[in-house]
Amino acid sequence: HLPVHFLVQDFPKEEMVALFAKAHVMIDTPLRDVLSRSAHEYLFCQENEGHGTLILSEFSGSAQSLRAAAITVNPWATIEFADAIYQALTREEIDFAELQRYGHKYVQEYTLKNW
Question: Residues with Cβ < 8 Å from 60, sequence gap 6 or more?
Fold first, then answer.
């Protein structure tokens, strides 16, 4: 069983939606970013597929608005980053249900048009 799949390639939008819906964890850790569109898309796709966990860089432009729906990390702090990945992979489903519900509701209310 391979717990992590690192994908660096282009996917059609339909396939990205399917990947976001099925992913248990998404790591979105830019060192500098204005808006993390993929973080918003991931949270939006999580509605009916369980409770995925978003790990988001504190340097992302989306960190301020999505902090309550994600585990935020400093990508340069490798120990804390590794701990966040471990926490996301070993979490209890119920522990992150509220994060997921908040994140999904937030991205539905505050769409890209608000940015």
Answer: 28, 29, 30, 33, 36, 39, 66
